[in-house]
Amino acid sequence: MQPLDIFHLRRRHAIFFFLVLAALTYGAILVTEYDTVRGLSAIPRAATWALRNFIPDAEAFARLPRILDKLLETVLMSVSSATVASACGLVVALMGATTTRLHPWLSLPARGIASIFRNIDVSAWALILLFSFGQSSYTGYFALFFVTFGFIVRVMIETIDEVSTESVEALRATGAGYLAIISQSIIPACLPQLISWVLFMIETNIRSATLVGILTGTGIGFAFDLYFKSFNYSSASLVVLVIVVAVLLIESLSNAIRRAVL
Amino acid sequence: MGVMTHSGRIRVRPLTKANLSIQITLIGLTLLTIYSFSTFDARNINLFAALGEMLNNFRMLFFEPRLKNTDWAELWHALLVTIGLGFLTTIFGAIIAFFLALLAAQNLAPRWLAQVIRAGTAFVRAVPTVLWVLFFAVSAGLGSVAAVLGMTFHSAGYLIKAYSESFEEIEPGVLEALRASGASWWQTIFQAVLPASASALLSWTFVRFEINFSTAIAMGATAGAGGIGYNMFMASVYYLDLRELGALSYAILLFAMLLEWLATRMKANLGAKG
Q1: A244 Cβ under 8 Å from any chain B Cβ
Q2: Where are the transmembrane segments (chain B) (predicted)?
């Protein structure tokens, strides 16, 4: 039998892979009714339009205090929802992780609930929670809370199982109680990772909060929507600028904290 | 190392820089959280009554789902549109990102060029996707064109960062050997860089597909992109129909869980390979 040419085989695999991708892409274009020509021609038009209209003017800067106020509201909501959800998530993760669960039966419900919370998108949660909380800050708060909670439970279960097996065994051998093991070994060992994930969720939540704000009429998302839909593009562009600065500042702050903590 | 303190107890955890930073961060987060509750815009909502109502709403949502204003065929088609939107923007973003990431990797491109592209992508990523979509809607009109453009922009920004970091992990010796043997720039890319980083690129792209699927739902709800997000928006804001919203939620939940399962499997496979 002739030996297989590995390069030939690899090339054939690659060609097959890209053909499948191309077919799927074509299918996606058909199903979404995306018009490629219109899409390409819109980019230069958007650029020239932005240079002419999407620039903050004096009138927009007069609104800056009010915009910053809304931004603060959104940032605070992102921080507090991420913090509270992570604290709750840590408790549920302790119930779900193999080394720390109180009973094997607790593991599955803990993982299942977390999975439902994180796999329903934050915008869908906002639409659901509008029924109970209306257009108040609570709607956005709980939407961010649920998604963060689901995410933190998942990553903390992984972290707890990674860091804790040996130290837990050692502490158990000395006769330490359950709470002592959790508070003296597991939580200190997981805390740097937890903080890193909380910071990641704060960054994510600021972007999500902008989106949710458009749906619930709160925070910086609402400010953008309001100016944008009343064709006040210079003020809307200032809102975008303010968001960019805030996101970049928070990203570099959390990177600095991560470097210090990990 | 244990240190005796005034009270005679042994301090188990020494006060290192890392421990101090952890404590300051925790205190800071707690203070910000407490302060944030005082700025809440509650709009006359009684929190405890509303929480009770929320549980009742969850019961209707999860245990009594049914369709009224849409039928099953429409639901699956809407889900398909949302998946298509997520897929399309991931592919477009990945193609753009691949070429720009080559120029953003410090071991493949001049330093100044890499830094310029990095700064540009940091800006693109800092603007939330919904704002990109609404921005493009001014010249393209609300609909799938604006959604595809806006989501592609943000995906490209995300993937350029991820790809270029994967390229930078390649052994410098491999590149040096190829360069020394007279290989052209494109030859080093296709013979060394691409084979070595292919699995990392694939898993980053899949992560982005997961993100884009949920973004596509959100764009249907907020930016007129169509798909299942639009049906959810109508069920919630116009028909006030929790049971229909429940059925739609199950559809997105199902697909999102499938994606998550695939991603976990992919990660396990990658881990096994190296």
Answers
A1: yes
A2: 20-38, 75-105, 126-149, 185-204, 216-239, 245-263
Q: What is the pLDDT of residue B13?
A: 65
Cβ contacts of B164 within 8 Å, gap of 6 or more = B101, B102, B104, B105, B114, B118
Measuring CA to CA, which residue among A32, A43, A240, A241 is closest to residue B138?
Answer: A43
* For range B123-133, the mean pLDDT: 94
Question: Model confidence at B70, in pLDDT bands (50, 70, 90)?
Answer: confident
Contact check, Cβ <8 Å, B127/A243: yes
What SS3 state is found at B171?
coil
CATH number of the domain within which B260 lies: 1.10.3720.10
Residue window 32-51, chain B: list those with CB within 8 Å of chain A.
32-33, 35-37, 39-43, 45, 47, 50-51
| pLDDT (average), residues B184-212 | 91
The three-point CA angle A208-A212-A214 to 5° equals 125
Interfacial A residues in 224-243 facing B (CB < 8 Å): 224, 228, 233, 240, 243
Task: Provide the mean pLDDT of chain A.
Answer: 90
Q: What is the ipTM of this complex?
A: 0.89
Confirm whether B174 is domain-assigned.
yes
Cα separation values, A92 from A102, A152, B29, Å: 11, 9, 20
Query: Helix, strand, or coil here: B98?
Result: helix
Three-class SS state of A55? coil
Q: How many domains does chain B have?
A: 1
Q: Residue B52 falls within a domain, yes or no?
A: no
Give the range of the structural domain holding residue B136, as residue numbers without chain letter: 79-273
CATH architecture of residue range(s) A62-261: Orthogonal Bundle (1.10)
Give ranges for CATH 1.10.3720.10 in chain A: 62-261
